[in-house]
Amino acid sequence: MQALPSLSLWNRWWQTVCAKMPFSDWLLVGTLLALGGSWNVIRADGGSERNCSAIPPYLPSTMVNTTLRLQALREAMSSVNVSAYIIPGTDAHLSEYIAPRDARMAFMTGFTGSAGTAVVTLNKAVLWTDSRYWVQAERQMDCNWELEKDVSISSIADWLIREVSDTDNIGFDPFLFSIQTYESYSYNLVPAKLMLKSIPDNLVDRVWTDRPLIPPDNLIRLPDRVVERTWQMKVEHIRTQMTDNPYKPTAVLLSALDETAWLFNLRGSDVPYNPFFYSYTLLTLNEIWLFVHKDRVTEDLKLYLNSTCFPLAHCVQLLEYEQVRVMLKNYMATSGVKVWIGTEYTNYALYELITPEEKLLTSAYSPVLTTKAVKDETEQRILRDAHVRDAVAVIQLLMWLEKVVPEGKETEMTAAHYVNECRSKQKDSRGPSFETISASGPNAALAHYSPSNATSRKLTVDEMYLVDSGGQYLDGTTDITRTVHWGIPTDMQKEAFTRVLMGNIEISRTIFPSGTKGVNMEMLGRRALWEVGLNYGHGTGHGVGNYFGVHEWPVGFQGNNIPFREGMFTSIEPGYYKENDFGIRIEDVVVIVPAHTKYGHNYLTFETVSLVPYDRKLIDTSLMSPQQLQWLDNYYLTIRELMGAELDRQGLTEEKTWMLKHTVPFQSATASAAVSSLSLTLSALATTLLHILL
């Protein structure tokens, strides 16, 4: 960029103009100046951040012009008498992943990160987001927007208190606010005499003229081979919990998308990476209302749901998705009713209708979510099977990378595409379960980085590589992370990797009483790192579904997760990240199974169902205890038995050879002979026969 003429008088005049010129005029001036060759206001390299303090402002080609959008939104705000409007980055079901048509924050700001909140007043526009996305926001937003490097509601509220008078209204869409979010805003705003105005008709939707449509795909039902409990059985189980509850609810309101999908054994395609569909359910002791886009329910599904019969206990009455508020309001007008909701996933638009208070029963999670968290025998078996097939794809990726990375042609992007392609060839594949995290060198130090055309690095033998990926299958959802090095790792890298592995093993081999909360054992995943002053800044694990969300609440190691029970699945994923250098994460999915103890009963432990070996050259066995090494050898024996059979079944001889090479036991030089070729063959044969019988 060329500098401005160094004439002080010209500079003072120009600065005065800058202070008064609206951004829309800046775009025109910038274009004219660029055409005249004076300044390159908008550059096409895409690799830089905006600079709104420059004269004229510097805008990278990755930015989005939001001038007209903001103008239209402000007109809509004036029409409903609000001076500020809050735009969260979520949907009406408070989902982790949202559909393109729900990306209202991204449409208004140009910022496509997964976390943030935008606020627009009549003369300002501000985005709040966390440190993962500060650079991205500066690359994508134009100078209409300010960036606040915070995500707390108190920070947003403080800004609103400074910018909005006590006679002004602050608008929000109640469908996009959780109960806790609304209460937090109210707590911070009420002392300043500021009030929130609920506007169920979303203002962004009014001005988003090319808003993506709902996918036209019909809903599907799960095949009988992956279902143990029919939807009628599930309904009766939830109704039993209602009648057993001492507060005697007459209805349960289901708002999270996976609640309705689980209850009726249905799946959809409305949300990327998640087989969900827009829906609510109101379940009473003798009626069922399903709120859905009815044109996507086939005649076969209507028959399956008994939707054509008279209102009876097992007849699902289909209503349009948008009718949920009207129906709930009518139900609340009935005497003697009490609605049970899970506060974590019920939006404020529905919550505000459940009045008076004696008609409301709350728990953190609905009985559907807590019931779904414990997999039945069929769900456990098929989820294990899905992880066996998924491990084939990851083994194929790691074997391929070992061969091709030294050639210097592959990138983070090509590796991500390769593992997705490998998964697509496996039985019952339904695509990835999330965007693959394929990261090398300093990119791997960003815990949730995913490669793009602008950021993808070439893979080399001189850097560590982290790949966090997963698949959706008709019988299960997977999530696995492996970290490797194709050259000579440093002592620091080996120690950090080994200590992360030690944390993974320590949790995996733990025996604990049934009902223990994950948060009470989470520190076991960090202890080996803490001993040398290292740590990681993300959670240690999360629940995993059966062809559902890859992050399935309420299972996991956080304080708001429910206690562990037999039959739950969770990930275990400690890590370490050295800024601008490398990142390490080792993630496995485990199932909670009974532990056989000498004296006690009702004790549990974890059994690992992810079946891919760790990088041997990164493991320093001198740091590990005999118990940890024994666990590792037992795990490798399991991989040999289960994956040996599966790789034989798929005719993947080279992959089996690679797997056997990387699962040689650690504890003695002769231990590799412990599992003979004959025993491996017999184990593979027995596993195959058992698989056929089941």
Keywords:
694 residues, alpha/beta, Creatine Amidinohydrolase, Chain A, domain 1, disordered N terminus, Creatinase_N, metalloaminopeptidase activity, metal ion binding, hydrolase, Peptidase_M24_C
Describe the protein in words.
The chain has 694 residues and is α/β, with parallel strands linked by helices. The chain folds into three domains: 66-206, 3-Layer(aba) Sandwich (Creatine Amidinohydrolase, Chain A, domain 1); 220-373, Creatine Amidinohydrolase, Chain A, domain 1 (3-Layer(aba) Sandwich), CATH 3.40.350; 377-663, Alpha-Beta Complex (Creatine Amidinohydrolase). The chain is built from 21 helices and 30 strands. Strands 6-5-4-3-7-8 form a six-stranded mixed sheet, with helices on both faces. The protein has a six-stranded mixed sheet with strand order 14-13-12-10-15-16, sandwiched between helices. It has a four-stranded antiparallel sheet with strand order 23-30-29-26. β15 (339-342), α13 (348-351) and β16 (360-363) form a beta-alpha-beta unit. The protein starts with 7 loop residues before the first helix and ends with a helix. Belongs to the peptidase M24B family.
